[in-house]
Design brief:
With 321 residues, this protein is α+β, with helices and mostly antiparallel strands. It has one domain: Jelly Rolls. 28% of the residues lie in helices and 15% in strands. The protein has a six-stranded antiparallel beta sheet, with helices on one face. α3 runs antiparallel to α7 (122-132). The chain is globular.
Length: 321
């Protein structure tokens, strides 16, 4: 009997084990090792935290990310996008939503190796895994390109990132979504910083238009900081009053039971999985048996990975040829 045949010989209950929570690693230990306990506490209390640059990545890495974002912006828009100047618009790039003072660059992971490196960032991953217990999947990796005049109006665009259920009640005891913004430029209220309503995540619902706008606070953070937040917290952004661009790299992570915003899972090429650690593959849905075609879920492929989680087996890599 071949190894593949042996792997396929398991009972129905074993299928449930393959889909059971992966949260058996020492996620608290990783948070402690990186000195992130205080930021975890802040997210629990106010819904967001600003992790300083020295705990995130070196300046040269931030410069690489910023350069890659600017390059992609120029290529997609066909415009001369410069960091110290206001943009003229989105040019040839017709992404939605967009406004007179902002557009969003979507699906960045495949645009430059630096975005792969960011997805392996241990600080960001430690925060993600603290909340999603190893069951997070990359939903989208985007960049908000904003310049003077960028404005969401009187409501500041306050919203939640957690999808709105029919009941209107968001999950309290578990997280469907966490999000983070890597600041590629300095953040302040005048620079059009993100706006949060502290503690609003505890309400477990989306805001009504204009609700508690007067309680919104701006994030002050130097370039290289990581703004990490609970998907339930109400947030938007202040209008940008200064010249030049405000840039972020936003990494939106959802629980694996949710549909991702951008297409990953089987769309990730094998060579990308092979040059990165197994955690990278899991975060991109390679461990997710759902989304099958005529042959069905093929749970046996994923059983091999359950036996040795530190190596992505060929049976999984074959799905990404």
């Amino acid at each position: 009997m071949s190894e593949r045949d042996q792997d396929s010989q398991f009972d129905v209950q074993a299928e449930d084990n393959l889909l059971a929570p992966k949260g058996h690693d020492d996620y608290a230990g990783k948070v402690s090792e990186l000195g992130l306990e205080g930021y975890v506490d802040l997210v629990a209390e106010q819904g967001f935290a600003v992790i300083p640059p020295e705990k995130v990545a070196p300046p040269e890495f931030i410069e690489r990310v910023r350069s890659a974002v600017l390059r992609v912006a120029k290529e997609r828009t066909g415009e001369a996008i410069e960091l110290d100047k206001n943009a003229n618009g989105s040019g040839n790039y017709k992404s939605e939503p967009r406004s007179a003072g902002q557009f969003i660059l979507y699906y960045l992971l495949f645009e430059d190796p630096v975005f792969e490196e960011w997805l392996c960032n241990e600080t960001m991953l430690a925060m993600v895994n603290h909340y999603l217990r190893g069951e997070g999947q990359l939903s989208s990796m985007t960049s908000f390109v904003k310049w003077k005049g960028g404005d969401y109006g009187d409501t500041l665009g306050l919203h939640c990132d957690t999808p709105r259920p029919a009941s209107g009640v968001l999950p309290e005891t578990c997280n469907d979504v966490v999000n983070s913004a890597l600041c590629l430029t300095d953040y302040s209220e005048k620079d059009g910083a993100i706006a949060f309503v502290p503690g609003s995540h505890k309400l477990c619902r989306h805001p009504k238009p204009g609700e508690r706008v007067d309680e919104a606070v701006a994030v002050d953070a130097p370039a290289g900081s990581l703004i990490f937040f609970n998907g339930n917290v109400w947030h938007g952004a202040f209008p940008k009053q200064t010249d030049g661009l405000r840039l972020t790299l936003t990494t939106y992570i959802c629980h694996q039971r949710l549909k991702t915003q951008e297409q990953y899972q089987r769309h990730v090429p094998r060579e990308m999985l092979e040059r990165n650690p197994p955690a990278f593959a899991r975060l991109l849905g390679a461990a997710d048996p759902m989304g099958w075609k005529t042959i069905g879920p093929q749970f046996s492929r994923f059983a091999a990975w359950a036996k040795d989680p530190e190596t992505v087996p060929d049976s999984i890599l074959e799905l990404h040829s």
